[in-house]
Amino acid sequence: MIDHLLTPGEREHHGRMLKLVRDRWEDSAHTWEGGGMLPEEVVRWCGEQGLLGAALPAATGGGGWNAIEAGLMYEALGRTGATLPSLVNVHGMMAQTLAKWGTAWHREHVLPALGAGTRVGAICMTEPHAGSDLSAITTSLTEKDGRLVLDGTKVYITFGRRADDFLVFVQRDGKHEACLVRRDNPGVIIEPMGDVLGLRAAGLARITFSGCEIAPEAVVGKPDFALTVLIPTALHHGRHAVAWMALGMLEACFAECAPFLRTREAFGRPLIEHGQVQTMVTRMGADLEAARHLCVSAARAMEANDPAATERILLAKYFVCRAAQEHSASAVQLLGSSGVSERSVTARAYRDSKVLTIIEGTEQIIERALAPALVNAVGRAS
């Protein structure tokens, strides 16, 4: 457990989160994936429990939770798999960006519903030919006869099938901007995208904007603000959340394996007494402990507004997602037929963990950012 890294108040908060999730969803998470979308009762529950607005500032109608409290929430949600915490995450990425860089109009007319969880937000970055390189987006915002018109296509939008409000990244006169769009705006076409490896209940969607008019106040931030400020703000929060949800998935895999390894026998001995099994378990346990430390370190840096926070978040996201991918595969191997059951949290973690190494920055993108920083840090220390 992570308790040894937490204050008494944080341990109590974590216990509440674990109980909240376990009591409500532990036995039903395996049923979500068939329909490609979290059931509406789960979405409502997230709003009613204050999870959607938990990390938003209290002044905007949110819960005002700090980074460690939010992280522990994502860890608890992550024990069900990546889909449930991804709902809270994409909503938070959108809402946090708006809370920091939106106008007074946004804070008055948009944020209260997002903070209360009565409306669900999503973020529209990826396009068919623009993924890691978001400078290549072609979705356009143009002025026609005094009106702002949005045209283009976004793909693999997490909870795009369910969200009420979208933060859409666009090009306008050769500059990158962002704007808010409601799902019921004329010219918004939402199509399901299924048959995916992981995040199977995350309501992935292709969203086409065709002659979609938006109001001037829907524009977020200054001209050419998106790539340098808005997207980094969203990713800062998103990567922190993804690291913690991957930690929850890894914790769940280890917890599912442990009793099986103690009680299942092979060749006359419990599995845990076999050397090869001990190697796999030791590696999993060591990486799990390292993952806990990295997540807590990232959250502490965020709380302190430490300039090193971005680097620590990147390290946590990089290491924990890779560990979840490696050790969920090991857990499936250790559990055998039980590990490939659709009811197994390990099976879901195995599918979802690969997706987590891609979203909010692939391993290669993070390496590109981290490697120079790590080398320069050694130079400063010497």
Structure, explained:
With 382 residues, this protein is of the alpha+beta class. It folds into 3 domains: 3-116, Acyl-CoA dehydrogenase/oxidase, N-terminal domain (Butyryl-Coa Dehydrogenase, subunit A, domain 1); 121-222, Beta Barrel (Butyryl-CoA Dehydrogenase, subunit A, domain 2), CATH 2.40.110; 227-381, Up-down Bundle (Butyryl-CoA Dehydrogenase, subunit A, domain 3), CATH 1.20.140. It is built from 11 helices and 10 strands. Strands 1-4-5-8 form a 4-stranded mixed beta sheet, covered by helices on one side. Strand 2 and strand 3 form a beta hairpin. Helix 4 runs antiparallel to helix 7 and helix 9 (309-335) runs antiparallel to helix 10 (345-356). The chain is globular. The mean pLDDT is 94.
- Shape field: globular
The mean pLDDT is: 94
Oligomer: single chain
* Helix fraction by DSSP (H/I, runs of at least 4): 40-55%
